[in-house]
Amino acid sequence: MNTINTVVLNFTVAIIDFLYRGRDFQRFWVLEEIARAPYFAFLSVLHLRESLGLRGPQHLYLMKEHFAQTLNETEHLEYMESRGGNSYWIDRFLARHLVLAYYWINVVYYWMAPKSAYHLSYEIEIHAAETYAKYLALHGHDDKILEILNDELHHSKELHDAMEMINA
Fold first, then answer.
1. pTM (predicted TM-score)
2. How far apart are alpha carbons 94 and 120 in whole angstroms?
3. Are 104 and 63 in contact (CB under 8 A)?
4. Rounded Cα gap, residues 8 and 109, in angstroms
5. Of the residues 16, 53, 96, 159, which has the fewest C-beta atoms closer than 10 A?
6. Is 120 in contact with 12 (CB distance < 8 Å)?
7. What are phi and psi of 55, to 5 degrees?
8. Crossing angle, helix 114-139 and helix 89-112, to 10 degrees?
């Protein structure tokens, strides 16, 4: 599944990079809008599992982590909005339709293969950090973008830890 995750991610990144070439904050806004979906999906599945009496040993920890990740991604989204990332209706239209599909894909994926779902999100967080690093390399220092880059790296570590918990 990891190979499929990588192929799908690379294909999606190529499309988004093409569509948002030269429009950094619009691309960042779309990516941050979509970035919240897996965490919402993970929480939804964890709540469903809890309701069905299928709570695992790391359940509470994962719920707290995913809720915190959701809030952090929302803060990133709000910052991108403050920089004009959502100023065009076509960007809002695209992101809001993609996020609906991506949310439901993640619900099913996490229910059926949580480790693979975490791997996909891990790869996305790594890509996000690389995207912000490229922006900083091209445009110079920006405290907020650097903070967001570090948040993305932190999220990737949390997702890696979640994958390890599943193995334990």
1. 0.92
2. 21
3. no
4. 14
5. 53
6. no
7. -65, 130
8. 150
Q: If you average pLDDT over residues 97-105, what whole number do you get? A: 94
Query: What pLDDT, on the 0 to 100 scale, is given for residue 49?
Result: 95
**Nearest to 91, CA basis, from 45, 30, 132:** 30
* Neighbour-count burial of 22, counting CB atoms closer than 10 A to its CB (0-12 exposed, 13-18 middle, 19+ buried): exposed
61-80 confidence digits (pLDDT tens) = 999 999 999 999 999 999 99
6 membership: H or E segment, kind and range = helix 2-19
pLDDT at 144 over 70: yes
| Residue closest to 69 by CA, chosen among 37, 107, 97, 115 | 37
Q: Tokens 């999100």, residue?
A: 121
Which two three-digit tokens encode residue 112? 């059926």
